[in-house]
Specification:
Layout lengths: L10 H12 L12 H15 L6 E2 L2 E2 L6 H13 L3 H25 L4 H12 L2 H7 L5 H20 L5 H21 L2 H17 L10 H22 L3 H15 L11 H9 L7 H10 L9 H18 L12 H13 L4 H28 L4 H20 L9 H23 L9 H7 L8 E5 L5 H6 L4 E3 L6 H7 L7 H8 L5 E5 L1 H9 L5 E5 L4 E5 L1
Helix pairs in contact: 1-18, 2-3, 3-4, 4-5, 4-7, 4-15, 5-15, 5-18, 7-8, 8-10, 9-14, 13-15, 14-15, 16-17, 16-18, 17-18
Length: about 550
């Protein structure tokens, strides 16, 4: 297959091919707790209630994040109904669109078609990017809009001063930044501002500020980002204190969310992400240093390296660490690595071997985890692991048999395809590790017993996927977790302890409780009436009827 097969009028073949693979398992995987359940349920409640201004989780106010993804997903529900694939559609789509975004930007700054295509494909073989990109999170949209803003800013700096093209690209940058803020908050402004400040300090050049078109850009940014913040504050006076102070400064500076990690936490994540191209890191850095800069020239590569370092450093310094946080550095990093990778004819073979080794190691780890937790290996999980290993090992064997020079790009496309499917298959396997991270099976067993009048309780725990699959909110008992703020705002009536639960439960003739197993044993000893409907290892479902 010639290299021209993927170019020109045929370019749609590549994106259609990769797109079909990217979305392949989206309808089949159960939603996982806590994140996938949360970001599926909040839009469902928004859609059902008709309140598109104040986000709610389990019927309680939830202000941890802005609403763009909730709006987009609720809009999808309006058209296609709520389901696993519709809940993931926005996140997965924006994750996938990072690939053509990198390709388009690479071509725009003058890189060859081959290098630009490899840059996009490096994202598709990045295990961290692919796995994170397939989980229903806010980080994919946040990364897409934030990187689009960074790319647009860089393109504006390359245009003729005060030209229409410069203005157009800067307006794109302002608009994309506003959408990033609506995706995950003001951290978007912090990251871009720090990058710009460091760049100006290192280059001793503040001329970029004169090319940012503040007089038109800031009003555009405010018109997109500000209305929701103003309106939600008018309806909910408690919003600003929680969202800006607690969710940004307190989370960054303290361990209030108990999401701590060592200073090298994200270095380990970065190592995992770059596993397929570890041998090309040195040449990529060397190439960036060797490029001479003309007087007054904006060096895109240097700016993107600063961006990557800022993202990595900022979240490494934070007292709250979660694996997806450094996702916004991956698209620019793929672009920075592409030329070095393209110039190394052994790079694809090494990346293929890395894929095979990674799928084997992760697969074996999942089997060991399953054995440790249950004393046995689930046949279904073993099947998914073997399939992932087979797909992951295939490029290392098949690639060497393909035609040589003219097939290099085809080999990269084949490797990207195998990577996308292999890592999705590992996610399928992970979802089956006991006791499981989804309430789907439990909810499907219980749902036939739930009527509109059935009282539902979640006792000693709260799993976000449960209300989504039951299509009902639950009364939380003796538990707060991430619902603490919403419970505080709802008042004492929403705070139900075990004594109050028994007062509601014992006389009830139509109620179901989802109880944490250890707590259920204590309640049994206290002679809790009712019979067990289902038990998935994480939750005991008890009916009172």
């Amino acid at each position: 297959m010639s290299r021209d097969y993927w170019y020109g009028a045929n370019a749609w073949r590549l994106w259609l091919f990769l797109g079909v693979l990217w979305f392949a398992t989206m309808p089949w995987r159960p939603l996982l707790d806590p994140d996938e359940g949360r970001y599926a349920e909040i839009p469902r409640e928004m859609w059902v209630s008709g309140d598109w201004l104040t986000p709610h989780l389990d019927g309680l106010k939830y202000f941890e994040k802005p609403p763009l993804q909730y709006w987009a997903t609720a809009a999808v529900y309006t058209v296609f109904g709520s389901s696993e694939w519709t809940s993931r559609l926005w996140a997965a789509t924006l994750g996938f669109l990072c690939l053509p975004l990198v390709y388009g930007f690479s071509r725009r700054i003058g890189q060859s078609r081959d290098t630009a295509l490899i840059a996009a494909l490096l994202l598709a073989i990045n295990p961290y990017f692919v796995i994170t990109g397939h989980v229903n999170l806010l980080d994919q949209a946040f990364s897409f809009f934030l990187v689009a803003s960074v790319f647009s800013f860089a393109l504006a700096q390359r245009e003729t001063r005060n030209s229409d093209q410069e203005l157009s690209w800067m307006l794109c940058a302002w608009a994309a930044l506003a959408l990033a803020v609506l995706s995950k908050g003001i951290v978007a402004i912090v990251l871009t501002g720090m990058t710009l400040a460091i760049h100006m300090t290192l280059t001793r050049d503040v001329s970029v500020l004169r090319r940012m078109h503040f007089l038109t850009g800031l009003p555009l940014f405010a018109a997109i980002a500000a209305p929701w913040f103003w309106l939600v504050q008018q309806r909910n006076p408690e919003f600003a204190g929680f969202f800006f102070v607690h969710e940004h400064f307190t989370r960054f500076l303290t361990t209030v969310h108990h999401r701590t990690g060592a200073w090298w936490y994200f270095l380990a994540v970065l190592f995992f992400a770059l596993t397929p191209v570890l041998w090309s890191i040195g040449p990529a850095i060397a190439q960036g240093r060797q490029k001479p800069a003309a007087v007054g020239e904006f060096q895109v590569g240097r700016f993107l390296w600063i961006w990557c370092i800022v993202v990595l450093g900022f979240f490494s310094f934070s007292q709250s660490k979660l694996t997806p946080y450094i996702l916004p550095m991956m698209p620019p990093l793929a672009l920075l690595m592409a030329q070095a990778v393209h110039g190394d004819r052994r790079a694809r073979g090494r990346a293929a071997i890395a894929l095979g080794v990674t799928t084997l190691i992760v697969g074996i780890a999942l089997l060991a985890l399953c054995w440790r937790r249950s004393g046995a290996v689930d046949p279904g999980l073993a099947g998914w692991v073997m399939l992932a290993a087979a797909i992951g090992l295939m490029p290392a064997f098949v690639g060497f048999r393909m035609a040589a020079a003219e097939s290099q790009l085809t080999k990269w496309v084949a490797l990207a395809a195998a990577s996308i499917i292999a890592y999705q298959t590992l996610i399928m396997a992970y979802s089956m590790v006991p006791p499981g991270l989804s309430a789907r099976t439990l909810a499907m067993q219980v749902k036939p017993h739930v009527s509109p009048k059935t009282e539902l309780f979640s006792v000693g725990q709260f799993h976000n996927t449960l209300p989504f699959y039951l299509e009902r909110t639950l009364q939380v008992v003796s538990f707060t977790g991430e619902l603490e703020f919403g419970l505080d705002q709802a008042g004492n009536a929403a705070k139900v302890d075990l004594q109050r639960f028994r007062e509601l439960w014992d006389p009830s003739l139509d109620a179901i409780a989802f109880i944490e197993p250890a707590l259920y044993q204590k309640l049994v000893e206290a002679k809790l009436p009712g019979r067990v409907l289902a038990n998935d290892g994480r939750t005991v479902a008890v009916i009172r009827r």
